[in-house]
């Protein structure tokens, strides 16, 4: 019985995801699903990307958290339209929530909508939210075993951003292990070593994202 209910929920979510994607396509908006653990640096990375992409694209952000509005306030301080989505305990964002939030944005004045998903390496990978592509963020302090432990998150992504590379000297972290594990589950997925704090590698990541946005909008 539980398996049947789960299948129905995910099937329903997929239908809503397709509606969200169609709505955004009609307004020529690219949705990017940003996923990763709590503390991986998702908000900081989005802020760093905004500074590098805002010259070409009009950007909005949906900030997903269990509770609070700290991250939305950080994005709004950049003069970027931001909406806080609180899941009140849910471990992921579903497409229905995105659909309900779209009217809070003037979609005709946006090119890109970043969605910062709930900090979690399991559930967010299972639920499409109408995105054009996904970026998974893994940070150095989390350890180099995460791709092996949570393969679906890294399989169901378009790109892996290895964040906080400025901290590599202080942690026993094997970049090549991560690279090999990632290639094993996602052979074609690009991997970028970056630091949202120092700017290391951010230009290359931003260039790749800009290319994907242009392709989506075309």
Name the features.
Rossmann fold, alpha/beta, disordered N terminus
Describe this structure in words.
The protein is of the alpha/beta class and 218 residues long. It has one domain (2-217): Rossmann fold, CATH 3.40.50.300. Helix content is 40%, strand content 18%. The protein has helices at 2-26, 42-53, 70-76, 95-101, 146-149, 151-155, 175-185, 202-217; strands at residues 30-36, 59-65, 82-86, 112-116, 133-139, 159-163, 191-193. A seven-stranded parallel β-sheet has the order 3-2-4-1-5-6-7, with helices on both faces. α3 links the parallel β2 and β3. α1 (2-26) runs parallel beside α4 (95-101) and α2 (42-53) crosses α8. The longest helix has 25 residues, at 2-26. It is globular and about 45 Å long. Mean pLDDT is 92; it is low at 1-6.
């Amino acid at each position: 019985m539980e398996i049947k209910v789960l299948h129905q929920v995910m099937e329903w979510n997929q239908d809503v995801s397709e509606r969200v994607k169609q709505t955004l396509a009609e307004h020529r908006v690219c949705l990017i699903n940003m996923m990763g653990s709590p503390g991986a640096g998702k908000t900081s990375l989005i802020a760093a990307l905004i500074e590098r992409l805002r010259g070409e694209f009009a950007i909005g952000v949906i900030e997903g958290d269990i509770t609070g509005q700290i991250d939305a306030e950080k994005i709004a301080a950049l003069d970027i339209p931001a909406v806080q989505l609180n899941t009140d305990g849910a471990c992921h964002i579903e497409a229905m929530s995105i659909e309900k939030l779209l009217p809070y944005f003037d979609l005709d004045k946006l090119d890109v909508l970043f969605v910062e998903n709930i900090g979690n390496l399991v559930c967010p990978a299972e639920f499409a939210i109408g995105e054009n592509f996904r970026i998974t963020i893994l940070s150095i302090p989390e350890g180099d075993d995460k791709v092996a432990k949570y393969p679906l998150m890294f399989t169901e992504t378009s790109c892996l951003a290895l964040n906080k590379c400025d901290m590599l000297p202080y942690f026993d972290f094997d970049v090549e292990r991560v690279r090999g594990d990632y290639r094993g589950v996602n052979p074609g997925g690009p991997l970028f070593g970056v630091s949202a704090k120092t700017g290391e590698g951010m230009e290359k990541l931003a260039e790749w994202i800009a290319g994907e946005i242009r392709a989506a909008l075309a």
